[in-house]
Write a structure and sequence with these properties.
Length: 266
């Protein structure tokens, strides 16, 4: 079980390591098992690909997946793709001088997003807590494109909010149990999404990219700003869509009451 959060401080200007860690703490408030999800993703990559994968970190944010890939598999190379100027500023600052890593700015709903990638094909495409931002049809298209980015035998792993809607009372109980934990941690000083962006926009080196981010995605400090109406919610949708997109195999490799990791083999 995650420890109760201590009151969080705004990182000092230019302390990219501290920004990276503050992003991780904020995400862990939503997903106390986030690190476990990453471990399962990396176990699956190592099992299927080996110790030196060429990895695409899709919707990379600050590069949390890339960080864990390099820590565990030092022979790996990673490309991070995202659209958010503020998160990419943190990522580029944090990985400055790291020759195994490149970052690309692209919108995954743009048909040309693959054109800027530095590698023709990848051994593994990994993504976490991101594709629920896409509506059903753009995500279906993206799954087809991911199949084209992977080499034969390559693996796709998506860790995200996905449920089993056949058990509504279990889901409701788990949801209210999780909300009580979040409330306790918030009272103890945890930083949520809106408060974290409040810190970002107050930071001299991040204020300008944050404002550009607000123009692209909306202002996260405004309640209800970040909502999507038509998005897939079940593990089954992801498995069915991956198989229909041409993946040879697709299965769930981890789950909690609210989240799952699905793996698909090209
Ligand atoms: C909650 S963050 C997760 C980031 C990272 N994967 C992690 O686990 O820390 C979701 C990410 O998806 C990115 N994203 C959402 N829609 C996108 C799009 N259409 N194109 C590129 N990135 C997108 C956001 O910018 C954000 O960085």
């Amino acid at each position: 079980m995650a420890e109760v959060a201590k009151p969080a401080q705004t990182p000092a200007p230019g302390d990219w390591q501290a920004w990276q860690e503050s992003w991780d703490r904020q995400q862990e408030w939503y997903m106390p098992d986030r690190e476990e999800r990453f471990r399962v993703m990396l176990d699956t990559v190592e099992a299927l690909i080996g110790p030196e994968p060429v990895v695409l970190d899709l919707a990379c944010g600050t590069g949390s997946i890339t960080e864990r890939v390099l820590r565990r598999l030092p022979g790996a190379r990673c490309t991070g793709v995202d659209l958010d100027p503020a998160l990419l500023t943190i990522a580029r600052g944090h990985f400055a001088g790291e020759k195994r890593v490149e970052f690309v700015t692209a919108d995954l709903t743009d048909p040309g997003w693959r054109e800027a990638l530095p590698h023709r094909s990848y051994d593994a495409v990994l993504t976490a807590t991101a594709l629920h931002w896409l509506d059903t049809e753009p995500l279906r298209v993206l799954y087809g494109q991911i199949g084209q980015v992977l080499r034969d035998g390559g693996v796709f792993l998506n860790a995200d909010h996905m449920t089993d809607e056949s058990a509504p009372r279990i889901n409701a109980a788990a949801q209210s149990f999780g909300q009580a934990r979040k409330d306790r941690e918030l009272a103890a000083g945890a930083v949520d999404w809106a408060a974290w962006w409040g810190q970002v926009v107050e930071s001299p080196e991040l204020a300008e990219p944050a404002r550009r981010r607000f123009e692209l995605f909306g202002d996260p400090r405004v309640p209800g700003d970040h909502t999507r109406r038509d998005r897939p919610t079940t593990v089954q949708w992801h498995l069915d869509t991956l198989r229909a997109s041409g993946f040879a195999e697709a299965r769930q490799v981890w789950c909690s009451p609210s989240d799952a990791v699905v793996a698909a083999l090209r």
